[in-house]
UniProtKB/TrEMBL annotation, chain A:
4'-phosphopantetheine is transferred from CoA to a specific serine of apo-ACP by AcpS. This modification is essential for activity because fatty acids are bound in thioester linkage to the sulfhydryl of the prosthetic group. Carrier of the growing fatty acid chain in fatty acid biosynthesis. Keywords: Cytoplasm, Fatty acid biosynthesis, Fatty acid metabolism, Lipid biosynthesis, Lipid metabolism, Phosphopantetheine, Phosphoprotein. Its main location: cytoplasm. InterPro entries: ACP (IPR003231), ACP-like_sf (IPR036736), PP-bd_ACP (IPR009081). Belongs to the acyl carrier protein (ACP) family. The keyword Chloroplast does not apply. The keyword Phosphoprotein applies. This is Acyl carrier protein. It is found in: Cytoplasm. Pathway: Lipid metabolism; fatty acid biosynthesis. The modification O-(pantetheine 4'-phosphoryl)serine is found at S41.
Automatic annotation (TrEMBL), chain B:
It catalyses: malonyl-[ACP] + acetyl-CoA + H(+) = 3-oxobutanoyl-[ACP] + CO2 + CoA. The keyword Cytoplasm applies. Pathway: Lipid metabolism; fatty acid biosynthesis. It is an enzyme of class 2 (transferase). The lineage of its organism: Bacteria, Bacillati, Actinomycetota, Actinomycetes, Kitasatosporales. Residues 253-342 form the Beta-ketoacyl-[acyl-carrier-protein] synthase III C-terminal domain. Belongs to the thiolase-like superfamily. FabH family. This is Beta-ketoacyl-[acyl-carrier-protein] synthase III. It is found in: Cytoplasm.
Length: 82, 344
């Protein structure tokens, strides 16, 4: 079943916490991965790979660049999840 | 008429019996790399874990480094060079198409007339060599086989390319594979994904300089034609390495019937500390497993990285003879090879 935006954000929060050690409650829609959450370009690849597994989506390298905030990623997953 | 053919008689099993390494004398710190690219020591360390690497001088040729490392491996195995029946050289930095450099290396070592050949499988090539050597020993076509990984990647580095200039290093590592009464090398999990063959590659083929469109050839700021270099799509490689290679490493453990709890040492190809950290996490390796982190002071030496890291772990006492180690190589091709071995 497709995940809701709320579920996606909660899932991303767990993933970011696991990969970058950021408290899950800091992971909110308007937060920028690199500027606010200490997720650098390589950690971002790990976040994307984990999100692909969890939400059954494909996020190609070319699209990763456009996912600046948690909200960008949540919207992308909402739109593309199988 | 179909005659009855007598098969060879090999050893019941194979094992690594000796290891040796050679690191060029010149140490190149990040500061030197920064002369040619817009970057910082902090960025390089945080994205790759690399602080220094060794770059070979003019006298430290591929053959010289290989002979140094291989000589130590032969001595470590307690053998004389004449006992070596096979020499496999894994490299991408031997610049003469023919003959293979393995024959010259075998001769310089004082080996008799061993089977000698080069293999090209990028950063996976050491594992490919191990697999071939194991087959030769157990099938009976050689009793002791040298597997040498040797690279002068500084020759193939574009010092102005921000995504590779800081990554590569030079050096040689070698092991001897010989007979064993006990299993000491697990099944190889190896393969390639040629649909991604353009993700890591040489910028122009050698014949590009002869027949190619000159406009396609690399040119320096001074207008001079430049040597080809290795280029890569860093993010694509990183994604493949952290996601797919952890699975391959797990398959190698499963194939050998070894659980992470039974493992003593993990020696992944030394490409980038971030890839190593991610694999350790994904594989859920317990605290007691010693992880090779030689990349910090050696950089990425492609086919040489695993035996160099193995040699250092043993020399510094971080690992000991008889330990069970998971090794995995991966890179250009994209090709990969993983296996579980008993350390010499
Ligand atoms: C090479 C590697 C470290 C580059 O890291 P990356 O995060 O992919 O780099 P990107 O090119 O996406 O750039 C990310 C940011 O860092 C910057 N950057 C790139 N190279 C830089 C450098 N050398 N110094 C400083 N900043 C750099 C970019 O400009 C970009 O900044 P921006 O976000 O403000 O635009 C990384 O991709 C890698 O190691 N991949 C695996 C490669 C490997 O191991 N290959 C061999 C396998 S055998």
């Amino acid at each position: 079943m497709a995940a809701t935006q709320e579920e996606i954000v909660a899932g991303l929060a767990e993933i970011v916490n696991e990969i970058a050690g950021i408290p899950a409650e800091d992971v909110q829609l308007d937060k920028s991965f690199t500027d606010d959450l200490d997720v650098d370009s390589l950690s971002m690849v790990e976040v994307v790979v984990a999100a692909e597994e969890r939400f059954d989506v494909k996020i190609p390298d070319d699209d990763v660049k456009n996912l600046k905030t948690v909200g960008d990623a949540a919207d992308y997953i909402l739109k593309h999840q199988a | 008429m179909t005659s009855k053919i007598k098969p060879g008689k090999g050893a019941p099993y194979a094992r690594i019996t000796g290891v040796g390494g050679y690191r060029p004398t010149r140490v190149v710190p990040n500061e030197e790399i920064l002369k040619h690219i817009d970057s910082s020591d902090e960025w390089i360390r945080s994205r790759s874990g690399i602080a220094t690497r060794h770059w070979a001088g003019p006298e430290e040729t591929v053959a010289v480094m290989a002979v140094e490392a291989a000589g130590k491996a032969i001595a470590d195995a307690g053998l004389d060079p004449e006992q070596i029946g096979g020499v496999i050289v894994a490299t991408v930095s031997h610049f003469k198409q023919t003959p293979a450099i393995a024959t010259e290396i075998a001769h310089k070592l004082g080996a008799g007339k061993p089977a000698a050949f080069d293999i090209n499988a990028g950063c996976a090539a050491f594992g490919y060599g191990l697999t071939l050597a194991k087959g030769m020993v157990t099938e009976g076509s050689a009793e002791h086989v040298l597997v040498i990984g040797v690279e002068r990647l500084s020759d193939l580095t574009d010092v102005t390319d921000r995504s590779t200039a800081f990554l590569f290093g030079d050096g040689a590592g070698a092991v001897v594979v010989g007979p064993s009464q006990e299993p000491a090398m697990g099944p190889s999990v190896w393969g390639s994904e040629g649909d991604k063959s353009d993700v890591i590659s040489q910028t122009v083929p050698w014949d590009g300089y002869r027949v190619g469109d000159v406009g396609q050839l690399p040119v320096g700021a001074d207008g001079e034609l430049k040597f080809p270099a290795i280029r890569q799509e860093g993010q694509a490689v990183f994604r493949w390495a952290v996601f797919e290679m952890a699975k391959v490493a797990q398959q190698a453990l499963d194939a050998a019937g070894v659980s992470p709890a039974d493992l003593d040492v993990f020696i992944p190809h030394q490409a980038n500390m971030r890839i190593i950290d991610s694999m350790v996490k994904t594989l859920k390796l317990p605290e007691h497993v010693t992880v090779a982190r030689d990349v910090e002071t050696t950089g990425n030496t492609s086919a040489a990285s695993i035996p160099l890291a193995m040699e250092r772990l043993l020399a510094t006492g971080q690992a000991k003879s008889g330990d069970t180690a998971l090794v995995i190589g991966f890179g250009a091709g994209l090709a990969y090879a993983a296996t579980v071995v008993t350390l010499p």
